[in-house]
Design goal:
CATH topology: tt1808, chain A
Largest sheet: 6 strands, mixed
Structural class: alpha+beta
Order of helices and strands: HHEEHEEEEEEHEEEEE
Number of strands: 13
CATH superfamily: tt1808, chain A
CATH class: Alpha Beta
InterPro entries: Nuclease_put_TT1808, Restrct_endonuc-II-like, Uma2
Strand order of the largest sheet: 3-6-8-9-10-11
Shape: globular
Protein name: Putative restriction endonuclease domain-containing protein
Number of domains: 1
Strand content: 35-45%
Number of helices: 4
């Protein structure tokens, strides 16, 4: 396996999916030819991901879309793993999804990855033409949910709400929630 890798100059999504083992451990991504390894986030992050994916999945099925947590997402030679995504095609039996099939991608902001979750990822998703981006922030255990629409190559805010209020979106599908419901309390 090492011999096979040494023949290439840089990592690609295809190479990573072929050579690296599937794991429930750290997240392994490829960006601009480099491999990035990250540990799982804290339990609030995991709880928010579980709840948002479950609820988005039920809402998205109304328009024949599917929501998944932490999917391998191929964008050219890059391999991203967004915290959650809603796709126009089922991921059934697949190891990775193509970014062209993403309707909405989302990130749950982690303290150690703020720049990646707030600036870098949205830029990468926008450059790939993903129509919708959702971000969840949780400061002092107060979740805030925000939806952004792709307009002229950049994400523009469409809807936002903090815990104790109602987040409502009508596009790309109807979805409502009090962000407080994303935590176990």
């Amino acid at each position: 396996m090492i011999e096979e890798w040494s023949e290439v100059e840089q990592w690609t999504a295809e190479l990573a999916l072929r050579l690296l083992p599937e794991t429930n451990g750290p997240t392994i991504e490829v960006f601009c030819g480099s491999v990035i390894v990250s540990p799982h986030a804290n339990m609030d992050h995991q709880t928010i991901m579980r709840e948002i994916v479950y609820r988005l999945h039920h809402a998205a099925r109304g328009i024949d879309c599917w929501a998944y947590p932490e999917s391998n997402l191929i964008s050219g030679d890059d391999l991203f793993i967004p915290d959650f995504g809603v796709f126009r095609v089922s991921g059934s039996g697949k190891v990775a999804m193509n970014i062209a099939d993403a309707l909405l991608l989302g990130e749950i902001v982690s303290p150690g990855n703020r720049r990646k979750d707030i600036i870098d990822r949205p830029k990468q998703y926008a450059a790939a033409g993903v129509p919708w981006f959702m971000r969840v922030e949780c400061r002092n255990r107060v979740p805030v949910l925000a939806l952004h629409s792709l307009v002229d190559g950049e994400y523009r805010p469409v809807a936002a709400a903090a815990a104790g209020t109602r987040f409502v979106m009508r596009e790309p599908f109807a979805f409502e929630i009090d962000p407080a419901d994303l935590l176990d309390e």
